[in-house]
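Handoff note, outgoing to incoming analyst
You'll be picking up this chain. Sequence as last confirmed:
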Amino acid sequence: MRSSAVVSGVLFVLLLALVAVGWSPLISFDRSVAEELHRDAVARPGVTGLNRLLSDWVWDPWTMRALAAVAVLLLWWRRERMLALWVAGTSLVAVGLQQGLKSLVGRDRPAWPDPVDSARFAAFPSGHAMTATVTCGLLLWVLALHWRAEWRGWSVLASAAVVSVLGVGWTRIYLGVHWASDVVGGWLLGWCCVVAAVLTYRRRRMAEKR
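Most recent structure output, in case you need it:
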């Protein structure tokens, strides 16, 4: 798992550097993908409406944060105070990293004469993609600590988490409010945050047992 954190972190830093310097092959790729999907979004209002519903409500960052808050409250009620604080702290750190990097990089979002959706703040990394990755990753981790061995519904929830993380990234690109690399950056940084949280929690628990 440590190697997963290192790989995702290194890839994110590399992508961040390429975005910051405006590496032309990446910019060209982002633009070609965005233009192709935007044409489809304009031509298919029904599909666009479904993507807006999923992006702005079902997988919205505030929906994800509400799920994380419920998990924190349940853990606190079960007297698992350290785990509750870990989930809350990781979620807050992720928000801080996300907003800080958006301000630092200051990447413009795609601009269209006929937009199908709108969004605020800078583009990189995608807040939707990062928040979904962090929240779903943390929730699956908490569930795995308690019920994975005996709970038959585990595979269903794991599949739903994967669909949510990948799906929200797709909606942000399809709706023309993010470049593809914004979404990939959100996934990478979000996963790095989750793995770092798991590893530090394990280290803390091992230290307590000594």
